[in-house]
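Tutorial, part two.
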Amino acid sequence: MNRFKNLTWYLLLALPTIISLFGCQRFLDRKPLTATLDDLHQGALESQSLGLYNQLRAAAGFSTLPWLDFNSIRDDDAQKGSSTTDGAEINTEFETFQYTKDDWATDTYWNDHFYMINLANKELYFADSLKVTDDASLRNVGEACFFRAYSYFELVKAYGDVPLINFYYTNAAQGIQPKSPAAVIYNLIDSDLNVASKYLPLNWDVAGNNTYPGRLTVGAANTLWAQTYLFRSNWARVVELCNKVIASGQYSLSANFVDIWKDGLNGAGKNGPESIFEEQSYLGQNGANWNGTQWGTSQNVRQGGAPVSWNLGWGWNVPTQVLVNAWDNSDPRKAETILYSGQYDGGPSQGGYGATLPPYGPGVSLDQPYWNKKLYSDPAMRQYTGEINNGGGADWINHRILRYADVLLMLAEASNEMGDGATAENMVEQIRARARGGNNAVLPHISFTSQSQMRTAIKNERRWEFAMEGYRFNDLVRWGDAVSVLGGLGYQPRNALYPIPQPAIDLSGGVLKQNPNY
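Running the prediction step on this input gives:
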């Protein structure tokens, strides 16, 4: 029954894809929207909300290469990967910080996030016009507010000041707006997440079953909100919001670190106890009912030469030698995060499947020496779905966007900055205790001795816990550590922000101004 319900939810998410294929325009270049209030009634906002989830799942700016470029490949622990010639321009743009103003990945990131904002604005406009008051519609309002806030948070991290478009418009010219200060964008984010935290449900359980796995909750709203305050160093609000998530009793650390990333039949590993929000992907037997993403496909093992028995994906977002060298081998998470070419995958206890990978050798065997094990696909799922050794990859793997470990480490960081070393120590220990997996000979308890000592410990814990997940670059920037850590790769202070895409500036007729120093 649960499998049927999950499939129904995936199929519902697919409906907006079919609808949106016709006449869909990108930001600043859209045809007028023509739906009228007569087309809608209370409860009809549901289809618009499902369209937001579909945009998250289907748009590359949220679910595949452009997202990885901006959030992961710019740090010192991850690199583009794949083959030398595949996406070669990304090496220059994101690994050596020679940013470009016009490229498919950068343009897509901007466009997809503003398109999501436009969809959310449309839903909020109709909700306001209909004066909805029923619980179902108010939950839809909460979903729209979350997705608008999430999109703007990603944009402000990437670009700083961006256009504030918080209204529904039917004339494309109305979408041409100048940049607003980041502080103004954050005001909108706060307002949206305040609404989302009021209207989103605690969970979507019906008779003990999660009817809509992956659907937004108040916990997701509060976790995202805490993240936004973390970037503004508003420690008191971070503490308040993280404590709300913890007190809700809805989440807990997965028993084992590898449990988070399990792949397999019947949705193994998806929507576990640690999951606060994850994008949902589904692929049925022999490719039936495809409602997947290329999140898993883009990061699975790539084999460039014959035979192709290990050509499991595109091979992007791979660990660097810097990460391999810096990470203590005694930390079990290292073997559970990094997959090594030419070596045994460690078996189930280390997130493997009992296989030995071919050796590294561009053009001969595997194209990289290391791979992101958190996206390592289960051979049983490859067989079941029919995606076997063809580079098709793992379209069924979910993107874990918000997870409980981040709540604990945000609380640790904010508490430490407020002088509460005891709470910081406790939160860090919860993460390390789970990571050590019962082996008390590794990852010893870190006792608080000073704020600076604990600050360093928290930075290290975030690095190891979230390796390859897209946290580190933005962490380095907000900590003020980016120049010292990434300077040798070409990073300069201006590289904290990416230049506004030139096509967007051109379409605006100069209303939209380029970021400083570009």
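The two ends are 55 Å apart (CA to CA). In part three we will examine how such features are distributed along the chain.
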